[in-house]
Model the fold of this input.
Amino acid sequence: MSFLFVSANSKAEKIDEVFHYDRVGLKASQQAQKKVEALDDQTLAIVEQYRQVLRDQQLADKYNQLLNKQIEQLEVALTEIESKQAQLRTTRMMLGPLLDEMVESLAQLVQADAPFLLSERQARVAHLKRLLVDASLDEGEKILSVLDAYQVELSYGYTTESWQGRVDGSLVNFVRVGRLGFYYFTPDEKEAAVWQQGWQPLSVDWVEQLKQTADVASGQKLPSLLTLPAINIENK
Done:
């Protein structure tokens, strides 16, 4: 009986020992699994970081490409600006003499033209000459002033005016019809004249037509077909 009891105890101890090793093995397996899972998490994190680095690199590459294009465009723009600046410097060098010639041509026109509004037109030319030597003004202002003066002179070619003035100290009524005719008649309607390299007398029969032209010019009458003395354009 004693032998059987010892044998049973021995088997029980072996079973316990097996269970013990199983538990130890299970525990070791669980710990190993936790390490594997931890390694997997680390691996996933590293992979995600790598992907993020790749995305950042791609964005950086695209940004650099865009930046390079912008730099190229800026270089082209700077080259164009430098070219235009060189052209502008050349233009400015030529502009001064050109404006001088334009003002001188205007002065010659006023001198050779019929002497209507002569004081006003001569004053305009003198003003332009002062502007051209004024260092405080830029080229743009000078150009505009010269062009404005030319525009005024051009307007005389298609406008009609009438005003009072004096000829040899006597009061007269002037009539200008574009640049085709410059006349006057006296307030008493006893004298009339036309400018052709000097004042040439007209018959008093023309006074009525000149009066009608003066009324049209001043807005007192509606425009109509008017008959005026012929002018010798070749000698004008």
About this structure: Confidence is low (pLDDT under 50) at residues 1-6. The chain has four helices and five strands. The CA atoms of residues 61 and 224 lie 78 Å apart. Helices lie at 2-112, 118-132, 139-155, 207-217.
